[in-house]
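Z., the sequence and structure:
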Amino acid sequence: MPVVTEQDNRKAVVLLSGGLDSAVSLAKARHDGRQCFALTFRYGQRHAIEIEAASRVAKALAAHRHLVMDLDLRPIGGSSLLGQGEVPRGRDLDAKEIPSTYVPARNTIFLSLALGWAEVLGADEIWIGVNEVDTSGYPDTRPEFIAAFEETASLATRRAAEGHRIKIVAPLQGLDKTAIVRLGMRLGVDLSLTWSCYNPLPGPIPCRECDSCRLRARGFDGAGVRDPLI
């Protein structure tokens, strides 16, 4: 069971994809006493199996509520995760170019909708499991972006205008995947419930060759533990 401290009654909207990072982020929010409202998007992603994983994680980590929103980004396109082209395999993880798996403005869109829900709920925080260390180089995972969105939220919401500024919390921002795996284990997260693969094989089985699979493998290898999905 996850380690949970006493509730401090602060509400938090937690973006939950069903992947490793978002699951650990939710566990950390629970550990820190937040009343968690998990938010997942069915946005037309080819790896929609992650939505099932999000439901498992939300239940296991006792989210107060889990909302799955339908938001089809395929008409906009621009990403192999939305079915435009093949998901890269065996890519150089240290390459500087932004890969085709980048979904245009995804975190901006997700945070905007989370912000709207936070206003309705009276939540003071939005938690997001982005990190800048072991990532595919997506621009919307950078600390500068998180800080800028928080400032936008302070200018764009009635709740902030009334003196209740909404904070964007990125608890994994400076951690690599090894540290994230270790944190998840310390928090008692059942990592077998999570899903990371962008391009699953029938079964479903992780492809083990996409960026997300390889970054996940790097984390488990570094932590010296076996990935329960492999």
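The chain has seven helices and five strands. Strands lie at 11-15, 35-42, 65-70, 125-127, 167-169.

Let me know what you think.
H.
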